[in-house]
Amino acid sequence: MRVFFVLLTCCITTFAQPEKLPVLVNQAGYNLGESKRFVCLGAKDGAKFKIINIATNQAVFEGEILNQEGWFTRFNPVSKDEFRIEVDGVGTSVPFWIADHLLEKIASKLGYQFFIDVRGSEDPINANLPKVYGGGPSRDGGAYGLETIFECLQYASNPALYDRWKTEFGDKNVPDLIELILWHAEFAYAHVAYQGPVGTRHGSLGYEGQPRMQYDYWNLLDQLSVVCAAYHDFLKPYLPREKYLKYRQVCNEKWMDYDRHKVVRYWTYSNKWVDAGFQEFNEMGNAYGQSVFSNLFMYLCEKNEPDGKPGQYLKWAQESAEDIIQHWDFNNPRHMWWIRNAEHITPQALAYFMMVAPEHAPKGTKEKLRAWATHMHQKTNNFWKYRVHSETEWAHPKTKELGGAPALGGSMFAVAYLLNDTRLRDLGWAQVDFVFGVNPVGAHLSNKSKERLDIGGYWEGVEHGWPAAHPNGYGMLGKVRGTLDGSPLDKDFQKTKTATTGGNESLDLIGKDAYATEGWCVSNRGWQATLTFSTLGSQQVKILNRDGKEIKQAKAGETVVIELKAALNMDWNLVEKGQVLLTVNGKSANTIEVNETGENTGIFRASYTIPTACRSLQVSYGTMGFAKKADLGIK
Q1: Which of 53, 248, 317, 383 has CA 20 to 30 A from 185's CA?
Q2: Which residues have C-beta within 8 Å of that of residue 224, sequence separation ≥ 6?
Q3: Which residues lie closer than 8 Å to 253 by C-beta, 6 or more apart?
Q4: What's the order of all strands across the beta sheet hosting 23-24?
Q5: Which positions, given as ranges, span the membrane (predicted)?
Q6: Rounded mean pLDDT of 318-327?
């Protein structure tokens, strides 16, 4: 367990520009059936490229470069071989895989292991808060981290996967991700009224003209709200009801006192160089859209209780969503990239409303998401597929925080799923590729250190990691698994002559050769969201007849085939298993085990004989808005 640390103040590392690779690919590889692309700097339109199977040394795909990009989306080999790309007259890429749910295979566990490692204490109740910068449950992140929200959503998106891993907590009988969620819940409940001293922070909390808060305990209610919702979906076997009722009670009692019922503006005062003054929205716990998430969670909780009051929470969620619909301004930097690591909350929260309660979403919800998608299409119109801030300045002018591309993919996946926008989903995968090396530095955004390799804390298949890190910064993240460490500076991007006129390097106020911007929990939270929402467009449940055709009706006593397509293929050398939930006659009956059907397919099946007393049957996978369902009428 790597949880204790000493606070240091290193913030910027400088180093020489590394030699750029000629053919930039996602170094780990690409998911079958998804967008696939690479960047070849300086290549002319029409330049030929080939994909070479490394095992056979044979060309298996050919194409042409356009706008310094090569696309090979339609190449979907069913094999475990590695490939490389060769561009005529330019060079070759590093090896990469193409496989079923490859991103989920190499990144799902690291996505939550980061949050295991950054806890400020092993004990959630007697945590030594003053030694945690920001005074919260994760290093260099106060209670505003909202880790529990995205840990719960990560589990809900793919439960059969996370049920497999039980090696890091307690008696090894409870999934690690569940244990982590319960740890955060205990922390939140124990400190929901904490107002003591914390480590040095860049500013203070509270409304202008009112007493300032040193610790952002308000946001602990948001972390408890998702646990209350998850209790009814998947936490009931692990969370005692009496403890859940305490969590629910404190949320109901403190909700209005802590202003969780509304969108909060001007809550953080910052004296940091990047965002000095009162901030309309910020990553410090008043993210735009945060109240949509938390009120929806309480709505989902309360509607399951006989004495619950779901209506009031639904009303508050609707009012918060209406605020976004009316006031979210894509051209206002304080609503977008200026709030850095919190920017992803806004589109994801609005999309989540459509996922869990579409019939109650305010008028204009989908239209606002469609407008955001259009804005993203416009702002990513470059061969990096990087969301730029302006024509002359692409990255943040004062700090290179990591909250852009790693989190933006998740927002694009969520909105693309609701709008059936395949181009936006492709852009989401381009953000993932950016993280894994399709960027101006040609490196994964995480430093590939020996310390991380020794503890299994790095992504399989990545050759080139970020050239520097801040192992001894505020968060002491050098030995934390899955940490992101840096992102390209404005000067690193190749731009048009118009864009570079005037010497754009001078816009990089943080330093000429500063690549690494200290990783921290709020950056990894956004990456965790991307891992979670990526499954929305690729997982599904079907009910088939014996001939393999999808059916909507069957007879009692008939044997059908239940089919699950999900990100469960973690070991290419094993026939793996999953579980789906059966609901018979409107009541959850039990789970049924499904088995992997073939190499690199991601398809799991099981035969099921419909009970003679069955009048209706539903098969589902996932919870909390991520459920994929198939219904069968019984003749």
Answers
A1: 317
A2: 148, 185, 188, 189, 192, 247, 250, 251
A3: none
A4: 23-24, 37-40, 69-71
A5: none
A6: 98
Going by C-alpha positions, the residue among 115, 133, 86 that lies closest to residue 2 is 115
Per the document, the length of the chain is 635
- Burial letters for 270-302: b for 16+ Cβ neighbours within 10 Å, e otherwise? beeebbeeebbbbbbbbbbbbbbbbbbbbbbbb
Average pLDDT, the chain: 89
* Contacts of 109 by beta carbon, 8 Å cutoff, 6+ apart: 165
- What SS3 string covers 176-200? HHHHHHHHHHHHHHHCCCCCCCCCC
Q: What is the arithmetic mean of pLDDT over 425-451?
A: 96
Residue whose token pair is 């950056």: 523
Report d(CA 549, CA 561) in Å as an integer.
Answer: 9
Position 599 scores a pLDDT of 82
Angstrom distance (rounded) from CA 388 to CA 386: 6
Note the pTM of the prediction, 2 decimals.
0.94
Q: Which residues contact 306 (CB under 8 A, 6 or more apart)?
A: none
Taking every pair of Cα atoms in the chain, the longest distance, rounded to a whole number of angstroms, is 77
Q: Who's near 141: CB < 8 A, 6+ residues apart?
A: 118, 133, 134, 147, 475, 520, 521, 522
Assign residue 572 a region: left if phi > 0, alpha if psi is -120 to 50, beta otherwise? alpha
Distance CA 495, CA 355 (A): 38
Residue 362 in this model has a pLDDT that exceeds 50: yes
For 149-182, how does the pLDDT look when each residue is reduced to its tens digit (9 = 90+)?
999 999 999 999 999 999 998 889 999 999 999 9
How high is the pLDDT of residue 398? 64
**Rg of the chain (C-alpha set):** 24
- In contact, 577 and 588? CB cutoff 8 Å: no
136 closest CA partner among 509, 578, 352, 128: 128
Q: Which two tokens stand for residue 150?
A: 């995205």
Residue type, 524: N
d(CA 339, CA 345): 10
- Measured between alpha carbons, how far is 61 from 317 in angstroms, rounded to an integer? 49
Least reliable range by pLDDT among 457-466, 485-494, 554-563: 485-494
For residue 62, the tally of other CB atoms under 10 A from its CB is 11
